Amino acid sequence: MTNPQLTELDDELDVMDWIRANMRWVGIGAAVVVVVGGGWWVYTQSKLRKEQNAAQALFLAKQSVQAGNLVLAQSDLSKLVSRYSGTSAGSEGAMLLAQIDYDQNKFQEGITVLENAAKGAPAPMEVQLRGLIGDGYLSLKNAPSAAKEYERAADMTTFVLEKATQKAKAARAYAIAGDTAKARQIWKNLAVDEKNPSVAAEAKVRLGELTAKVAKAG
What we know:
Shape: flat
Helix content: over 70%
Distance between the termini: 95 Å
Number of domains: 2
CATH superfamily of the largest domain: Tetratricopeptide repeat domain
Largest sheet: none
CATH class of the largest domain: Mainly Alpha
Number of helices: 10
Number of strands: 0
């Protein structure tokens, strides 16, 4: 009968023999682990510093906005957006910069800022960016493009209320564009959304309006 203790001892000896025979590869493997771990630490620290620096730059830019110095604010925000793209603060800075453009009726310029920022923005921020792009297109009287951006924003978010809100904006935009079929379909889905009673209530009203409009036209 085999002695369990001897078997375990033999297994340990086999492992030690393997390590001695492959000492070089064991050393290389350990070195790789250290390098990868060190590289990851450097990356995370660098990313953290970038976020912190971006937040500080955003704070200074906001001070310029609050002071009413739009020329300086635009300069600060442009530098922030260029230097810290991909960060949360950089994305927020892009929204502020675009809003300044919108306030001056420079809607296409604002849309361009937002589109560039959306390419590398954190997912939650891209939802807001897409929503603002939709607002810009709506101001340009390009309702179909606005509706598509609102729908993109709705598809990206995981928040129930935000999704319903963006869907409702898309339905309104489709109605403005004259695409009542798409508007009706969205409102039908929202009308039975029990998680968002206020949006559901509006959806029922909009459906009634669309039905009355179709009946009148007929």
